[in-house]
Design a protein that fits this description.
heterodimer; A: alpha+beta; 3-stranded antiparallel β-sheet; 38% helix; B: alpha+beta; 3 helices
Chain lengths: 262, 142
Amino acid sequence: MILGSILDLAVKALGKVSAIVNKGGKARVIDDDEELKEDEIYFQGVAIEIPDTIEKDSISIDENISDEVLAMMVTESIQEVDNYTQEWEVPDDSIRLDSGKSKPASIRKEASTKPVFPDGWSVAYYPAGGEGGGKPNLSYIREWVENTKLANMSNEDLGHEYSRVLGTKVPSKLDTEKRESLVDSITYMVARKIWYVGRRSADYTDAEWNEETKHMRPEKGSFGKNDIWKNVQFPYGQEYVYTSGDVHKAMSELKSGGKLSY
Amino acid sequence: MAIITYDSVDEVIALIKAKWSNLKPPNLTKVWDKRTVGFIDDRRDEVVVSPKGEKVEYFGLGGDGFWHEQIIELDIRTYQNIDRHNDVVKEIVSIIKANIVNSTYNYTDLRVIGTFSRNFKFRNMFNYVVTLSYRRSLGKPT
C-alpha cells in the first residue's frame, strides 16, 4: 500500500518534470531523502528551479492544477524561459569570430527540415570557436547589447537589469558610467558563454547541442586575461548542461572596474 | 471563435475595473500595449496583464465542443509603500475570488492558481505576480 503510493507519487512527479522540461523549463524529480538546492522549491515530488529575482518563500501554486498548466506557469511565468532565452542569446548577425585562420569557425547543420525559429538563429557556433578557433568579437556583441537587448528597456527595467547582472541593489539612478558598466558586463558574459559552450542553432534542441558539443569545451580560464574564476565555481565544464539563455554572471574582474577585453 | 487568448485578457480587465472598490484604481495595461508604448509610468500603480499558454481539449461527440484553459499573468507593480501595495494586491485577489463564476462574463470559471513576489531587490517598487486560470467552453468554430 505504502509502496504503491510512493510509486504513484514518483510517476506523477515524472509527468510533471517531463511537461516542464519539454517546454524548456528546469525541474527534476526529487527523492524524499534528497535536499533541495538553494534555488529550488518543492512541489509534489518535483524540485523546481526559481530565478533569483523571485522570493522563493512567496511562491504559492494550486495543488490541483494539471501537469500542462503547471508547466505553462513554471516556464512562462516563473522561469520566463522564452524571454530569458531571447534576451540572452545573440543572433547570428551579431556574432563574428576573430580568427586568423581561413576555415570558417561556424558550421551550419546540414539537411535540416526543422523550421528556423526565432529568426537569426540559423548558424551553429561551436565551443572554442569551432574549427577556426576564433573568439567572438566583442564589439559586435556590444552593439547588440546596447542597440537591441537594452534598447527598449525603461530606466526602471535597466536598473533591475543592473542589479541582476552586477549583484547589487537596484540603483536609484543609472548614470552613464553604470550603463557602460552594464553593457560591458553583459557583452563579456555573453561572449564568454559562446566561447565555452557555443551557441546552438535553431536546428538543435538544447539537449542535442549538449550531447554533440560537451566534449569540445575549452579549458577553464581560456577566454582571456579577464577570465578569472576566483572564489566562484567554473560553470562551463563538461558537466554543464547546455541551456539557452542561461548565461553565468560571475564577473569579479569587470565588477571592480576591469577593461572589456579578452 | 477558435481561441480565447485575447478575449480572456479583455474580460479579466473588464472584471477588475467593474468590481474595483473605493480605492484609487491602478492602470490595467495589456502586455502588448506596454511593449508598444515602451515605458511604464512609475508614478502610478500598474497591473500588466499577459496571456500565457492556452490549453485546448476536446469534449463532446463529433468534436463539437472544446474546453479552453487560458493562463493569465497579472504583474502588479505599485510604487508608494507596502501598505498601498498590500491593498492593491488584496483587492485584485478578492475580486477574482468573489467572481470565480459570474454569468455577466463568458468564462466558466476564473481562479487564482499561483502567486509570487519579486519584492526584495527593488527600490521604491513592490511587485507581486498573480497567475490565473480562465476556463471556458467553445463550440465548433464557425
